[in-house]
Amino acid sequence: MQNLTLDSLVRTFGQLVADFGMKLVAALVIWIVGFWIVKKIIASITYAMKLHNVEPSLASFSMSFLSITLKIFVIIIVLTTLGVQMTSIVAVLGAASLAVGMALSGTLQNFAGGVVILLFKPFKVGDTIITADGKIGVVQKIMIFTTQINTFDNQILFLPNGALSNGVITNLSMGKNRRTDLEVGISYGDNVENARKLVMKILSADKRVLKKPEPIIMLSDLGDSAVVLTIRYWTKYEDLYPAKADILEQIYTQFPKHKLNFPFPQMDVHVKKN
Questions:
Q1: Considering the domain 113-171 in this protein, what is its CATH number?
Q2: What is the pLDDT of residue 9?
Q3: Residue predicted with more confidence, 8 or 72
Q4: pLDDT tens readout for residues 77-120
Q5: Three-state DSSP class for residue 74
Q6: How many whole angstroms separate alpha carbon 130 and alpha carbon 2?
Q7: 236 in helix, strand or coil?
Q8: Which of 168, 141, 173 is nearest to 157 (CA)?
């Protein structure tokens, strides 16, 4: 009788192990295939968005959100396959959501910040921005919780969306045309009108300098050792820095040829003999 009971227990345990093994194998298959399908779905939708010229900011945010949602769905199917009751999963998810929501209130704020950025569009993918704490770079991706920007020295920064949506952001790309202000000093005694005409000639020869608004060259200060000219002109945003560098180089090389001198701080010492 005892042998029969022991054999029955062994068979029952073996059957349970076999059943759980089958469930485990099925769960692993669902996990692998499910994540593979999610990857393919994300890739297909991303490709379709590119074909239909969907705004990159919206595309990156949507794909990030969809990827997380589909992966959670796959995990729920895997748990159900292992025999976990759906009511238990819902209860656990509810309790976990409350705990995680309280612990990660900042993360939820970042999610809300991402939604705000997409709705009000203070910047989009491809824009050059300056953040409130002085970080500057080109926006590469706007994701659920963070925004990726690449700095000009090729550092990759991940900035929380909550701080970006609530802070001061300078969007350098939003204005198509930008004004540049240059200050150039000449020595006392040099001809200011000649300097003004020469600078205007340099600006007129540069096709990147816009004709309207017209460039302005004015005497703005009488410094301790220099007569200061302020030069104001407009260019397209993409020409801002290249044009500035070339114009400064032209001023530096052309002024001395026209007897216009660059002053430098100096001190005259007079020695009195008793």
A1: 2.30.30.60
A2: 63
A3: 72
A4: 888 877 767 666 566 666 656 555 544 556 678 878 888 888 88
A5: helix
A6: 80
A7: strand
A8: 141
Closest of 205, 191, 163, 203 to residue 259, by C-alpha: 191
Domain 177-257's class? Answer: alpha beta
Question: Is the CATH number 1.10.287.1260 carried by domain 2-103?
Answer: yes
Helix (H) or strand (E) holding 138: strand 136-142
Omega prior to 213 cis, within 30 of 0? yes
| pLDDT tens readout for residues 143-184 | 888 899 999 888 999 988 888 888 888 888 887 888 999 999
Residue span(s) of the chain under CATH 1.10.287.1260 come to 2-103
Residues 6+ apart with CB under 8 A from 253: none
- Token pair belonging to 23: 């469930």
Strand 146-150 and strand 136-142: the pairing is antiparallel
Quote the pTM value: 0.54
Query: Is there a contact between 237 and 173 (Cβ–Cβ < 8 Å)?
Result: yes
Partnered with residue 58 across adjacent β-strands are none
Residue 106: predicted pLDDT: 63
Burial class, 257, CB count within 10 angstroms (exposed 0-12 / middle 13-18 / buried 19+): exposed
Position 7 scores a pLDDT of: 64
Grouping H, G, I as helix, E, B as strand and the rest as coil, residue 131 is coil
Share of the chain above pLDDT 70, in %: 82
Q: 239 near 208, Cβ under 8 Å?
A: yes
Half-sphere exposure of 216 (CA within 13 A, CB side): 9
How far is residue 177 CA from its own chain's centroid?
21
Which phi-psi region, left, alpha or beta, contains residue 157 (left: φ > 0; alpha: ψ -120 to 50)?
Answer: beta
Angle between helix 105-120 and 86-103 (nearest 10):
80
Residue 212 structure tokens: 């309207």
